[in-house]
Amino acid sequence: MVAITALSQGETTNYLVQELHGLGVTYQAIADTVGVTWMTAHRWATGESAPRPAGPINKILAEMLGDIQTQKRVAAGAFSRPKNTQKTAILA
């Protein structure tokens, strides 16, 4: 994962939108969350444009990314098989 603090505000937006889209979030879902059109979200992902001001948008996008990553960790743990800790009785 890239250290977001080392990126400019526009690069941070670009990175966050690309990460979200890579995890399966549509540009429309991103756009609906921050109140823009899907094409604007796509332009942010390609670096064609950046939101002004970027700070509040980046905060929302980072929260979305954190929520998705948390959901994936929880879902991954939910399907793991429990270890069989009981000993099987041997019938003679």
Separation, N- and C-terminal Cα atoms: 57 Å
Strand tally: 0
Per DSSP, the total helix count is 4
Q: What is the residue-averaged pLDDT?
A: 83
**What is the approximate shape?**
elongated
Rg is 20 Å
Helix fraction bin = 55-70%
What profile does the largest beta sheet have?
A: none
Write up what this structure looks like:
With 92 residues, the protein is mainly alpha-helical. It has a domain at 1-50. Helix content is 61%, strand content 0%. It is built from 4 helices and no strands. The chain has helices at 9-22, 27-34, 38-46, 54-78. α1 packs across α3, α1 (9-22) runs parallel beside α4 and α2 (27-34) packs across α3. The longest helix has 25 residues, at 54-78. The chain is elongated, with a radius of gyration of 20 Å. The mean pLDDT is 83.
Short summary of the structure?
The mean pLDDT is 83. It is built from four helices and no strands.
What is this structure's SSE topology?
Layout: H1 9-22, H2 27-34, H3 38-46, H4 54-78
Helix pairs in contact: 1-3, 1-4, 2-3
